[in-house]
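A quick word before the example. In earlier lectures we treated sequence and structure as two separate objects. From today on, think of them as two lines of the same record. Here is Peptidase C14 caspase domain-containing protein written that way.
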Amino acid sequence: MQTSIPRLDDVDVPVSPTSPLSPTSIERKTPIFSLIIGINKYASDEFQDLKAAVGDANSFERFLVEQLQVPKSHIISLRDEQATRAKIIDGFAALRDIAAGQPRDVALIIYYAGHGARIEKPLEWEDWSASEDQIEMICAHDIGVPATDKDGVEGVIQGIPDRTISVLLNHLSDIRGDNITLILDCCSSAGINRGEADYVARQILDPPPLSANCDKDIWSRETGTRGVGIAEGFSGKFHASHVLLAACGRDQSAWEDPKSGQGLFTQSLLKLLGRRDVESLTYTSLMHNLKMPVWQTPHCEGQYVNRRLFNSRALGADTSFMLTKAEKDGTIILQAGAAQGITVGCKFSTHASNLIEDATHTNPSLGTLIARSVDAFTTDLALPEGALNFKHPRLFYSRLTKQVSGSKITVYGEDKAWVESIFLPEYRQALNLSIADKAADADIVLSVVDKKVYFDRNDKWVNTHIGSRLAGSVEVDDFHSIREVVRCSRHFSYHLTRQGPDDFRNVWMELKYLRESLTQDYDIVMTPIGRNLIDEEPATITIDESHPETRLGMTIFNQTDLPLYPYLFYFDPSDLSIIEWFTPAFGAGAGTLTTHTDAPLPRKSQLSIGYGDGGVPPWEFMFREGDTKDIGFFKLFLSTSPSNFSVVLQKSPFEESVSRYGKPSAPQAVEAERWGTKMATIIQLASSNT
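And the structure line, produced from the sequence above:
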């Protein structure tokens, strides 16, 4: 075998598992269009006026015009009497129209400051899943005003429910793309009576009840493959339609300070945006840096939270970068621990931001830290022995560069000298990598055929179903990519096989096919049908790609007395990708790591994923060309505290791959930090292979 010796290039720090292999994207500014709504005055005497919402809307508009240089012609402004129910709904269409002729990836920002409310869901809305059967709504200026509907029925102006906002957002997304940000400075919850004496809640406690026919004409215009029954709350039907920035969680209130004339959330948001380079912020780093009191915890969610703010063109956050905080007492705390696979002695490079490097932004290492002690969700970092101190911000990011235990990998190649020259000693040490003398002793075997390197795994159980060869190859002289495939293999195996200390016996998963049906209003509803496909381990599923019912939904059942935070991933051993299917919203401020961050799985509850209130699309298995059998693993990480498992994510290393009233209660402290895992193995067979 004729092989060449590689050049001595970057071998000490592995590339992120979610970074492009060659990040060359050049950032381009994205045009911004915005709908900005602020309401202090409410027409009905039943509802208390606010004092700061209009000022907040004006301040946000001023930020867009002065700091982001957004032309005023790109902004639709609705204040007080202008912000009626009808005009707010029409504003979504107007936003679409003023962006006509622009590229599909223009940034659309919808900002609302005013009262919010929560109300019981109409009984007739059986197809609309809602947490605790409560509907969230925003409250227009004319809410509660007497009115007669188009059928001549007398009543009052109702709030604008989350269901309507969801459909309007998806209409926008279908036409203008997914670069949409929804910012809500209002309450989305009830039941809190009095807060800090000097603050006012942006909350209507007793809004007019919703009629079953509320906005039916809007829902019935919903077409396409997205079902109205897909999600609840302002997060929208799919996490993919937009990113939500909400002032608080569902069991909190959004507060405004009449003395300063500002809402706490908008005040903190604009203060941060005013002193930071907006182009270098992602939604995640924005939340990390947002300062808020423990009794109001902003929430962020959406598929694209790792993008830069209002920009889908530039490279965003590197999910392997973990938030790290320098405390006042000098300790350095990594916001990840044993649940994320960290062990004592692990080594990290530190960085000022969480951005992927590209042609316009560099993110060099500031220095090295090691794990001194590890808890369930945090790690105490320190300087390596004998290392010099280095300067770093109070908040920064750390990336794992050396795993010291539980994550070893052995490789073999026929030409051992060639293999040794690719995996230099520094790289072997960083990855716990060793080079085997025999193919049978290796985890990964490298073979060179026609100047291409192929990779075979030594996993007898997986190989029985899909063979040993990975679904991709790299050029023989592409040494970086060879190392990447091996690193990804180690990362994949480590996170797939490691188990949590708690087995959560009273938590289980059910996977079922989804049947698509139309309501009388032509809403598309997904309903689970048939048996639980993963009632055995491993489970075998026959895939008929021509059959209409190939989409799948997962239900997670929590019969414990604990609120839980689920993180669900799919592991594909063919291309080494690890894909996120569901992760919860995450918080900002002092309440981030407490139960003031909403738990998707309250005690004695269930969560729908791919249908109902999960907010993510259904799952669908697809075969690569020529394949009739495949295997994969759904792995569920569970925790009793909000955490961040994005470090688990991994793109395939191969270029082509298929796959606010009264003081809120104090945050609950969990008696013990617990985490655990569940896994389901899925063997997929083509219908012609049965």
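Notice the following. The two ends are 41 Å apart (CA to CA). We will return to this example when we discuss secondary structure assignment.
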